[in-house]
Amino acid sequence: MKNNIIKIIISFTLLIIGLILKLKYNLISNIIFITSYLLIGYEVIIKSFKNILEGKIFDENFLMLIATIGAFLIGENAEATSVMLFYQVGEMLQDYAVDKSKKSITKLMDLKVEVANKKIGEKIVKTKVEEIKIGDIIIIKPYEKIPLDGIIIKGTSTIDTKNLTGESIPRSVSEKDEVLSGSINRENILEVKVTKEYNNSTVSKILDLVSNASDKKSKSENFISRFAKVYTPIVVFVAIILSILPPIILNQDFNTWIYRALTFLVVSCPCALVISIPLSFFAGIGLSSKLGILIKGSNHLENLSKTEIMVFDKTGTLTKGVFKVQKVCPIEIDEDEFLKLVSTAESYSNHPISKSIIGYYNKKIDHKLVKNIEEKSGMGVIAKINKKEVAVGNDKLLNELGIKFDKVNDMGTIIYVSIDKHYSGYIVISDEIKDDSYNLIKELKKDNIVTAMLTGDKEEISKSVCEKLGIDLYYSELLPYEKVEKINDLMNETATNEKLTFIGDGINDAPSLALADIGVSMGGVGSDAAIEASDIVIMNDEPSKIIKAIKISKKTIRIVKENIIFALFVKLSVLVLSSLGISSMWHAVFADVGVSLIAIINSLRVLRTRGIK
Asked: In the annotation, is 313 catalytic?
């Protein structure tokens, strides 16, 4: 940067001297102009020849080289030097603006800590985070960022997870609680046992997602790339025609039309679009990250603005997923023995219902009693426990096994139990709707987005949830593969340019997340399955954050369109004016560099949170 400024000052000084000497010493002034030109433009010349050798002919360096050399050939030495000088000034300002913009965007996700305080015996040793292993003990002091994921083994404090989840309220933590890298320790010293090495930590995953998001280009970005490849050769061809045909047909001076053609070339550079459009999407992804929404590519950000139907999983997405046992009804068996068998059968599952039963039983489970266990997808489990065959699941499981039972109509999820092929009772479990879900559906209705819910839960429970929230459609008692089929049906019903967004928990709904136009996982921090399966990860448990993501998406697309329209309008106007001889190379430089700077500045408006938070 400093070297560029020195070169610009020297070149500008030589240009002024050349203009002064031009009045009396034309030869000396021309030598000074050429010296100034080579000083400021040698990088453009070298880049042009390198690109030509690599087959990349039609870029801004090539256009600028042709235009300025052509100006020298027709005797416009001062203008050729001036155009190259101000082009380089504009490029420097442009690079500075882009670099500063990217730094301000990536600063939103300034999460990484370079070193951690590793505890070795009674000593504390500063160690690079990449060298910390699973099982190592690290010390986190007050107001320090947590460098690696781990479990607290000593201390209580509050942690600020705003950088990860966008949640402004600090979270209280104590021994046995999990803490995630990138959070900030707010109060007391914590001793943490590391559970993930840096490459697998939350911070590493997030930074990888944000930095690689630009690899998945939006349609707008791909269009501009293709447009530039076709547009630039056409402009060069038109410039050649413009320099040859009019002077022959109209019997006019060649130099006049060559000058117009050269001006035509300068203005044709597509820099404003090639730079500002990816920057707009980068800014949108950066702002989303700040708000706790990870978007894995600008194509997903663009598609989100076209969402016409939003489909939800129920448990853990619209509801809290925190099930509580409301009723235990054993038949011809002691309640404690009944709960022991059911809890043992469910102990190998991570499903929220299983955890609620085990938590309710609240006694140590002897896994040695389990000889065999079979999971029936969407129905339940069958286990051989202490020589007894225990089946735990929904009514479909007992129907499949041919076991007669009385269907229960209590409000809630009914878990039926059979022991040795005999119906032995049931457990009633209920879940609660998240307060945030009401706001989500309300906001979606304002945007005229159709809402639907897919669940494996009972008809009456599904209907009750949808009526309370105001969801348009629901499909209940679905197995995982039936959810996929239903999403496929809904996608077939949408128009070509409309998109279906599916929001699930990122683990059980992986096939649905993968199939939908946009897959969104809830509460995905630290979950490998969530990050892998979905296009967008909401990093806490608030489904309404998808509304913020949609607003960012629409704002980004609006600004991209503004830049395209503005840049094309100015460039086409100056192209026409240069063809008619009304505009000069000075106007062309503004139409190239000036428009680029204005488009870059406009792109940064994406970062403003007014109307989004």
From this structure: yes
